[in-house]
From TrEMBL:
PANTHER family named in the record: 6-PHOSPHOGLUCONATE DEHYDROGENASE (PTHR11811)
Domain of life per record: Bacteria
The keyword Oxidoreductase appears for this protein: yes
Pfam short name (any one): 6PGD
Keyword hit for Oxidoreductase: yes
Keywords: Gluconate utilization, Oxidoreductase
Designated name of the protein: Decarboxylating 6-phosphogluconate dehydrogenase
Protein family: Belongs to the 6-phosphogluconate dehydrogenase family.
SMART domains to which the protein is assigned, alphabetical: 6PGD
Species name: Streptomyces indiaensis
Annotated ranges, domain 6-phosphogluconate dehydrogenase C-terminal: 160-291
Amino acid sequence: MELGLVGLGKMGGNMRERIRRAGHTVLGYDRNPDLADVHSLEELVGKLSGPRVIWVMVPAGEATQTTIDRLAELLEPGDVVVDGGNSRWTDDERHAEELAAKGIGFVDCGVSGGVWGLENGYALMYGGDTENVAKVQPVFDALKPEGDFGSVHAGKVGAGHFAKMVHNGIEYAMMQAYAEGWELLEKVDSVTDVREVFRSWQEGTVIRSWLLDLAVNALDEDEHLDELRGYAQDSGEGRWTVEAAIDNAVPLPAITASLFARFASRQEDSPQMKMIAALRNQFGGHAVEKK
Ligand SMILES: O=C(CO)[C@H](O)[C@H](O)COP(=O)(O)O
């Protein structure tokens, strides 16, 4: 089939290649002309024959909104837009309604696989009407990993991004657990080769996983992570997971703590710990450290 792909960055560029390897025709548009096959969304839409499927793979928020707004003007009834970015699931219904007003279908798709997806395939979680999903199915089949799993029609519009958001929340907590265990192992004198402990865990243990394999890769590159600052950003999905938990009164202590640990990583000093030190000093005369 033919696919229009908008956004050819780290994810989109490799996805174009994987879909092409499966024998499909992909026309890619990116603001960077060095990456693009066509030079505008107008040209992209004009060169595809209907019913068109356009996969949007740009940053969540304003970039995705602007792209969908423009596609709503350019596409025709029967065409389908897929949002494959890490959009907040609450945006999906709005996008579906905006496009449905023009007779254009909408599917939201959470995509996991990172820079390894070209070779390993991408795990896909999608939401939308069966009729719209069917139009995109050959692309899902091209992108997904080989094997029985790795792809799911999770439910109605929004379900794909909701499932991906929860996946990323779990990712936060798993990474935090490996990171905490690694720090404790590094702290004690009795363990003399932490990297080899991590490596040994890759087979036979209860905690073996791809994230563990990646941790070993990172330690092979920089055994004690001396070259890095302990500073971690976040792109929003951890926050949205915690917000959804609050809305639904579902306790998520591990995921919430892993999000807050990232916030703590961005502070040079801890204002709240200054207050705790001050209070201990006030009520008990406990020693404080001064700058
Ligand atoms: O989707 C992903 C992996 O599954 C992204 O890499 C992830 O969104 C990164 O999130 P954050 O910046 O919040 O750590």
